[in-house]
Amino acid sequence: MADSSFDNLTSLARALSHPKLELSEPSDVSPTRGAQLQPCRRRKLSSCTSLESVEPLTSPTAEARVLVINTGGTIGMTIHDNVLAPTANALVKSLRKLPILHDAMYAQQTGLYDYYSYENTLVLPLSKDKKRIVYSILEYSPLLDSSNMTTDDWGRIGKDIEKNYENYDGFVILHGTDTMAYTASALSFMCEHLGKPIVLTGSQVPIFEMRNDGRGNLLGALLIAGQFVIPEVCLYFYNKLHRGNRVTKVDAGSFNAFSSPNLAPLATAEVDIKINWDTVWRPNTTAKFQVSTELNRNVGLLRLFPGITSATVKAFLQPPMMGVVLETYGSGNAPDNRPDLLQELKKATDSGVIIINCTQCLRGTVSTSYATGMVLMDAGLIAGGDMTPEAALSKLSYVLAKDKLDLDAKKKLMGRNLRGEMSVDLAGAKLCLSDSRFIQVIAKSLSVSCKEELEAIRDALTPPLACAAAKIGDIEALQALKEMGTNLCLGDYDGRTPLHIAACEGHLKLVEYLLGHGATVYAKDRYGDTPLCNAVRFRHKEVVKLLRQTGAHFSREKLEEAGTELCSLAATRDLEGLEIWSLAGADLRKQGYDGQTAIQVAQAVGNKEVVAFLVQLMSNKSKSGGVIEFTATPSGP
Ligand SMILES: NC(=O)C[C@H](N)C(=O)O
């Protein structure tokens, strides 16, 4: 172990998860502090007229950026010829006039429009957490009633997110409610290694009407997308955030239009916005975000009903059909006294059609408890668990398009939980909170016993402990903390996560471990710094490479500042510094505050070594297309 003052940490962490182990002597586990991090520099107040009402440059107020993609739906519809239809170019104009959705004064005073040079950019009033959410609206043409949406439209949304991924903290998709559950499900599979929130929302009544649900839904979606690193495709409606591939539209006439029957909400927006972090899906990867727009269109949904003819089933399963979601009765049942029907199903699965068994019931899962369920397994169907038909259909479309996989691999993938779309039985895998010896001791001394209080203790104590383990590179301690249900993504009182600390310390293996166990590269501490900023500051080259490989990037502000930083590094002949900023994504051609580039600064002082180094760095970068090679550390003790 690297630091003797933390010698007991592993045993302490072990004691947390194993009731039989005695608690060691308490060790000094004070968490690592943010290492003199500077507040983010705010952008220039270029067209400022009155400084009194503007936050100062050193204000800790953080600005988050959200891209809103407006695809259509009721939220932006008006009545034409007595029917509702989407209206182009009307939404932004209307939002500009709504003070809860646009702070015109702030926008004007801070030169928002000059800075973003984008006329569809708006800004929310200051949030409770002192955050400003700046959002830009990208409006599609034509705007669509979601009944008109096709697979191509999903691809377009996916590509636009991919194109803009590094420029925004989160994404909101405005969409009609009729097929929103399908789009949300499809995007959840198409977005591979997602690290930022994508929130779909819309409304039942147009935002232009006096009484409507559009304003609340859009505001809630923006607040969530801008303030929380929830790496999921979600759906926000009627004060609840749901996992996108778990929802279904259940009501055509109520503001409460969606249900997530088999998974509790990821967040509720009541007096406060409460995130249920234990439910939030974690990517567990060191791979970069990408969107797979390849989808197989030869898929379909078939709902069983009493008396369905085998001719109907046969016709439905004919080529080019490649994947079918069969909506069965109850817990996945079908008639077992209909050999004609079962034979058609068996013929299709034998010929390579993948058929998924999903229940027609709103809630619950398929099983093989009945003979009428077992016959479907015998016919070669794959159990869809508690997936919604919308999720199963889009998953089929996504999996069937994976041309490199053979049929068996595709079937296996269909039975696996890819994005939290189905429940897996974790019985026995998780330690009960009250089993933890550590929590028991604390709970006893505080005389608490209810689950909520135990959870509160865990949530208050474990993030700083995890940070302390990260400080000394103690992976075993982190494992033990994880076993007791600790969320390794949570930050301490300064919002500093174990990944921030490990990045500061340059513990490469631990960084790898954390990324493989749900840590996010997009976490920001209270100073707005990400793990990448920390790794650059403390010059841990391999950590920078790994974080970049996982999709970490500098913010727009940081990239703006990079020119000046590079010039000063060039002036002081700091080759290591230049290299690390370049690895972290800084543009070596970026001008500093006085219009000079790093290379010009080096030339001006006649430093040939720095000039040659910068030229080399630039040519390496253009050869690799900006891709950084990271060599994984060998696994082992
Ligand atoms: N509430 C809505 O958005 C319904 C509309 N027909 C749509 O799906 O576009």
TrEMBL record:
Active-site annotation: T177
EC number: 3.5.1.1
GO molecular function, a single term: asparaginase activity
Entry-linked SUPFAM superfamilies: Ankyrin repeat, Glutaminase/Asparaginase
Chain positions of ANK repeats: 494-526, 527-559
Single GO BP term: aspartate family amino acid metabolic process
InterPro entries recorded: Ankyrin_rpt (IPR002110), Ankyrin_rpt-contain_sf (IPR036770), AsnA_fam (IPR006033), Asp/glu_Ase-like_sf (IPR036152), Asparaginase/glutaminase-like (IPR006034), Asparaginase/glutaminase_AS2 (IPR027475), Asparaginase_C (IPR040919), L-asparaginase_C (IPR027473)
Key words, A-Z: ANK repeat, Hydrolase, Repeat
Segments forming domain Asparaginase/glutaminase C-terminal: 298-414
Pfam families cross-referenced by the UniProt entry: Ank_2 (PF12796), Asparaginase (PF00710), Asparaginase_C (PF17763)
UniProt: substrate binding residues: S146, T177, D178
L-asparaginase N-terminal domain location: 65-279
Keyword Hydrolase: yes
PANTHER family: 60 KDA LYSOPHOSPHOLIPASE (PTHR11707:SF28), L-ASPARAGINASE (PTHR11707)
Family according to the record: In the N-terminal section; belongs to the asparaginase 1 family.
Protein's name according to its UniProt entry: asparaginase
Organism from which the protein derives: Scophthalmus maximus (Turbot)
Organism ancestry: Eukaryota, Metazoa, Chordata, Craniata, Vertebrata
